[in-house]
Amino acid sequence: MRLCLDTSALVKRYVKEEGSDAVRRYFVAAYGGEATLVLNAFNIGEALSALHKAVRRAGAPELYPRLKNRLLGDVKRLTRIGSMKVIPLTVSAVLASAPYVERHGLYIADALQIATAKATASTLATGDAKLCDAARAEGLDCVLV
């Protein structure tokens, strides 16, 4: 199984919300060598920003360093064992995303998820129904978490 996680799916690994159990299973499968998780490098920065915002909103900013370390630790460990691929953010990747912005009215960050999933022949995992619909319209498999 090869899954491209968008930021909304990735954050569910670290913040308990609807869909977190499914994302946890994806990470367990990756750690067990049964799945490869794919991220665009942009997702890592966007997830850190989302985690920072979540802990501030919850009134618990002291939790951010621990969540940041968990996320970065997962990326390092899974990349090292070959169960995660981090795709660099390049100008060509952004340009490849533009048609999805135009066809589906997506924000460029969401369009980038479709481009990344297509480039890596991955199923897209997202918490965003509009993005999932657009991915399916582009011929991708998509899992709404």
TrEMBL record:
Start and end residues of each PIN domain: 4-136
Q: What is this protein called?
A: PilT protein domain protein
Lineage, top ranks = Archaea, Thermoproteota, Thermoprotei, Thermoproteales, Thermoproteaceae
- Matching Pfam families: PIN
Residues that span the membrane, as ranges: none
Q: Which InterPro entries match?
A: PIN-like_dom_sf, PIN_dom
